[in-house]
């Protein structure tokens, strides 16, 4: 790593300041000083251009932003398969490691410098996380969970850690997972249509069982994510003190019914619980057709209502789910803007600083701010006009180290 880097940013979007919402524009001709992999200072380029640096990067033709943060991925899953997690049932760990490696690097190439993996095999993902920690240019920073905790016959029971709905059993399971040096506990709080026999309109765990998990994990400073589709499961996760809630479908107790509760939205905000919305599917095709993607129109209105409460709704990709590649995150951000309500600068904030806080990495990354890691991307054009341009960064930097984008072969991705 060079001692000191000076970057001339043509425009700067810091991932923190909602310029468009305030009727302002991003500042131009900003100079960034990078030292020891972190942002040391920021000033106008005129005050920096005659200073001495080990390396000077002329990004004056580009818009510079924080690296993107994807809060919801399944690196070992195969999005081209009918059942994406099929290979995890009787796993070939070497195959899964190579797939996870390629998928993470494909995302890295599109400007994702941090991601949270929920529910894969720790035997694969912990070594991958550590490899990317030791070689910053190889891939994004990773937060990983253990196997998904689920009930007998529940969603993902074929690949998960089977735990009955019982507080003592849950506590024992979490203790066992904490020994694996994971970053998150992942709990499947409800059924899903993808697992026959499980019920997406019913909770899998009561609030007491979830609270046992949260209390045990928090005693070791490990956060807990709970995947919830029905409102009953959302309510249980909030009562238990979960750190993030995934999916948030607001299903009622019967097929086709919704049970949206403003009071629960206020509880999310009051307790700083992050709702993470996977925007999955073939997102470029969805944009081209002008459809709202995987979400029914009524459900979209509910998400718009949540966003209106200024709850930081986090757009994850769900990459690894059926038909959901690791190279289309920014297309999902454009969908998020068009159909869930936020302005484009708010969508950028949701996918950078807010997403970093959601995965408990906000102290390190997610914003262009003095003291934070120099995780940066540079893009041609104006993201405030089209978020999809974020999918093709000209430059990517992680911890002050430039990434050789040409070395990442997208054809290897499975």
Sequence-ordered SSE layout with sheet pairings:
Layout: E1 4-12, E2 28-35, E3 38-44, E4 55-66, E5 68-73, H1 93-109, E6 112-117, H2 122-134, E7 141-144, E8 149-150, E9 161-162, H3 167-178, E10 185-188, H4 207-218, E11 224-230, H5 231-240, E12 244-251, H6 262-270, E13 274-278, H7 283-289, H8 297-308, E14 314-316, H9 329-340, H10 344-350, H11 353-358, E15 376-379, E16 395-398, E17 401-402
Parallel strand pairs: 1-4, 5-6, 6-7, 8-9, 10-11, 11-12, 12-13, 13-14
Antiparallel strand pairs: 1-2, 2-3, 4-15, 15-16, 16-17
Commentary on this structure:
- The protein has 414 residues and is α/β, with parallel strands linked by helices.
- 28% of the residues lie in helices and 22% in strands.
- The strands form four sheets. It has a seven-stranded mixed sheet with strand order 3-2-1-4-15-16-17, with no helix packed on it.
- β6 (112-117), α2 and β7 form a beta-alpha-beta unit.
